[in-house]
Amino acid sequence: MPRRCCHRWGRYRVRAQVESSLGVTDIFYLPVKPVAGFNPGECVEIYDFEIEAFSLVHYQGLTTDEASERLKLSKTTFWRILEQARFKLAKALIEHKPIRVVSSKQESGGSSP
After folding, report:
1. What are the tens digits of pLDDT across the range 20-58?
2. Phi, then psi, of 18 in degrees rounded to 5
3. β partners of residue 45
4. Which helix (H) or strand (E) holds 55?
5. Residue 6 has pLDDT above 60, yes or no
6. Long-range contact pairs involving 102-109 (C-beta distance under 8 Å, separation at least 24)
7. Cα-flanking dihedrals φ and ψ of residue 99, to 5°?
8. Phi, psi at 100, each rounded to 5°
9. Cβ contacts of residue 29 below 8 Å, gap of 6+?
C-alpha cells in the first residue's frame, strides 16, 4: 500500500490585489533611527494590507469575520494575510531585523518571507 502524501504548508503570498486604506506610498524602514551595519537586504518586508489586517484584529479589537468584511475579503484570504503578518513581525523581533513597510501598489525589489 503506497504512503499518503504529506503536504507541508509553506509560506504563501496573496495573489489577489488587496487595497489598503493606510496610504503608504513610499518604502520606509522600522526602526527609523540609523542603525550601524544596516543592510537593506536583511530586512523583513511587510505590506501595508498586512499591517492593516493586523491592526484591525489586534489593535481595534475586531473579530476576523468583521475585519474580513471591512476589507471586502473572504475569511480564508483574510486569515492567510493575518497569519503572514504575524509570522513576519515575529521573525523581525526574534531575529532583530528591521522591518520594511511596502505599499501593495508597487513591486518589491527583493523577497523576504
Report:
1. 665 555 555 666 566 666 676 778 889 989 999 999 999
2. -105, 130
3. 100
4. helix 48-58
5. no
6. 102/24, 102/27, 102/45, 102/46, 102/47, 102/48, 103/20, 103/24, 103/25, 103/26, 103/27, 103/47, 103/48, 104/17, 104/18, 104/19, 104/20, 104/47, 104/48, 104/49, 106/27, 108/45
7. -105, 130
8. -105, 115
9. 38, 40, 43, 98, 99, 100, 101
The answer to whether residue 110 scores a pLDDT higher than 70 is: no
Residue whose grid cell is 486604506: 21
Which of 58, 46, 59 lies closest to 20, judged by CA? 46
Q: How far apart are CA 75 and CA 96, in angstroms?
A: 31
- What the block records as the C-alpha cell of 105 is 501598489
Count how many Cα atoms sit within 13 Å of the Cα of residue 72 in the half-sphere of its side chain. Answer: 6
